[in-house]
Design brief:
Layout lengths: L1 H23 L7 E3 L2 E3 L4 E2 L1 H4 L1 E8 L10 H20 L5 E5 L3 E7 L4 H9 L4 E5 L15 E2 L8 E6 L9 E4 L6 E5 L4 H12 L4 E6 L2 E7 L8 E3 L5 H12 L7 E9 L4 H52 L2 E2 L1 H13 L2 H15 L4 H37 L2 H35 L44 H6 L2 H10 L37
Parallel strand pairs: 3-16, 8-9
Antiparallel strand pairs: 1-2, 4-6, 4-15, 5-6, 7-9, 7-12, 10-11, 11-14, 12-13
């Protein structure tokens, strides 16, 4: 147990140092850029704290099918828009939900460029490669009604490949090293990859024309067979290239969309509400720390240390996962501060009960944790189930404020289980191994609350002064003295002592003269009459 305790302590120290770096950095703002993974480690604020854009999109039927089933396509449209927002706009905690009259309601926190939003969300995103033969079609030409898939009339261009056949993992925007111009690289998947290679081989010298939503975006000469990635050039800037890559990567919309309304939203709460929330969190954390310290003394101090670690862990997880903080999310975070010590209260009360019953400190801690664990487990499981229900409700009805509350509350509960149960328990074990702070007062217990003779020592023959109360039995074990006790006393001792882990039954010696009290002698009884010498 000693080795495990020290190893866990080292793990906590390393974890605390990493948490401090994520939360505050070492002299500069922290960020992660490793192996293609990038995380600015910033706190994302919700729509109520920083404002954003609200867009209402109308779902329409295409000109070729005026009687389309718009209701059946709504779910696919919402899913496609969510993927575009997450990948193309990099907006966290965006709201995308259906509304009446075949409309889609979209809220984008923190976004101020409505042009970029409309360009990404409004386009259908259907890419086609059409066979124009030896004819170069100017960029920007609208070819609506001039394309066909099987039998083509005179003047129509056959669609030879579609965006559905693209390999989404190969689509990326960048800068061409030779021309220094923005490009979008693409490749086809499966059999379409071989078909595209054969098509380019058979049409060397002819034009490869790419359309997006029936508008030509490139018409270039095929120089040679293309067996790998293709390139789309002629893009005005890198931002447009990134938007195009997002459209191709996340697929086309089943039906076209038009903008019904667009407006900028100002923060509904503002900086003052955010500052007041921070003050409320600091006050709540401070009050809980003081309560635990004054009521539970030394264990309360250890719980306060675990609580500070909990606050650091929670803030680091919020930054690492990019969780968006709205006011309900902040309220859930403050709420979890009080919930984080619930487990400690249950554990410490159980430990005090075991100490009153005469357990050694090590046994009292082990038994206290074991007996408190079912209550801790059930209460936190109930809270997590509630968080899941709130999250489902928020996703179903588009209530993002409820979603933020549920996510922050659930994460706080999981972290509090780690700090309150594992961290605090190992802190207590380390305290026992050090051999310090063995007086009952350190644990919020008066000497009179310990009626067992091993704590209220018998008066020594040598000195009339009563021995000092202690929660840690002496290390010296008098095996003969234990054997000398009668059967009744042995039974009583067995009833009073429970063992866990490495704990062993030790004979209690007088803290002044080191002698072991026995039932075979008569003398001055202890303070409670529990043992005689």
């Amino acid at each position: 147990m000693h080795r495990r305790t020290f190893l866990f302590l080292i793990f906590i120290v390393v974890l605390a140092v990493g948490t401090f770096w994520v939360d505050f950095g070492f002299g500069k703002s922290p960020s992660i850029d490793f192996g293609g993974y990038k995380n600015p480690l910033t706190v994302n604020q919700g729509l109520d704290l920083q404002g954003g854009i609200q867009v209402v999109m109308q779902v329409n039927c295409p000109d070729t099918n005026k009687n389309c089933d718009r209701g059946a396509a709504m779910s696919a449209i919402v899913d496609n828009l969510q993927r575009r927002i997450a990948g193309g706009l990099a907006v966290n905690d965006a709201v995308v939900r259906t509304a009446d009259n075949f409309r889609v309601f979209i809220e984008l926190p923190g976004l101020t460029d409505d042009r970029q939003a409309l360009q990404l969300l409004g386009q259908t995103g259907q890419m086609n490669i059409i066979d124009t033969g030896a004819n170069q079609v100017p960029v920007g030409t609208d070819v609506t009604g001039q394309t066909c898939r099987a039998t083509c009339a005179s003047g129509q261009f056959k669609i030879v490949f579609t965006g559905d056949q693209l390999d989404t993992g190969a689509i990326q925007a960048g800068i061409d090293q030779q021309s220094n111009q923005p490009i979008v690289q693409f490749a086809f998947k499966g059999q379409a990859r071989n078909d595209f290679a054969n098509y380019t081989l058979q049409n060397v010298g002819k034009f490869l024309t790419v359309t997006l939503d029936n508008k030509v975006i490139e018409s270039a000469t095929i120089q040679s067979q293309i067996t790998g990635n293709g390139q789309i050039t002629g893009i005005p800037n890198l931002a447009s290239a990134q938007d195009l890559a997002s459209l191709l990567k996340y697929g086309s919309l089943p039906l076209p969309l038009t903008v019904a309304s667009l407006r900028q939203l100002a923060p509904t709460l503002g900086q003052q509400a955010l500052d007041q929330s921070k003050i409320a969190g600091i006050i709540g954390l401070g009050m809980v720390i003081l309560f635990m310290l004054f009521y539970y003394r030394l264990p309360g101090l250890l719980a306060d240390m675990a609580l500070v670690l909990y606050a650091g862990f929670l803030f680091a997880i919020i930054k690492l996962l990019g969780i968006t903080l709205s006011l309900p999310g902040i309220a859930a975070t403050v709420l979890t501060v009080g919930m984080a010590v619930d487990a400690n209260v249950l554990i410490f009360e159980r430990v005090k009960e075991e100490l009153r019953a005469g357990r050694t400190m090590a046994a009292a801690i082990d038994i206290g944790f074991k007996r408190a664990w079912p209550s801790i487990r059930d209460s936190n499981a109930s809270t997590l189930i509630t968080c899941f229900i709130l999250y489902w409700f928020g996703n179903t009805f588009g209530a993002t404020l409820i979603i933020g509350f549920a996510i922050n509350l659930g994460i706080g509960v999981v972290i509090s289980l780690f700090t309150a149960v594992l961290v605090t328990r190992n802190f207590l074990h380390l305290l026992i191994l050090s051999g310090i702070a063995s007086h009952p007062a350190w644990y919020g217990l008066p000497r009179a609350a310990l009626p067992i003779a091993r704590y209220n020592r018998p008066v020594s023959r040598v000195s009339p002064t009563a021995a000092r109360a202690s929660l840690v039995p002496p290390k010296a074990v008098a095996s003969k003295a234990v054997a000398a006790t009668d059967g009744n006393d042995s039974d009583d001792m067995d009833d009073d002592a429970e063992f866990s882990g490495d704990d062993t039954l030790e004979a209690v010696t007088n803290s002044r003269n080191g002698r072991t009290p026995t039932a075979g002698r008569s003398g001055v009884s202890g303070a409670t009459g529990g043992a005689e010498e």
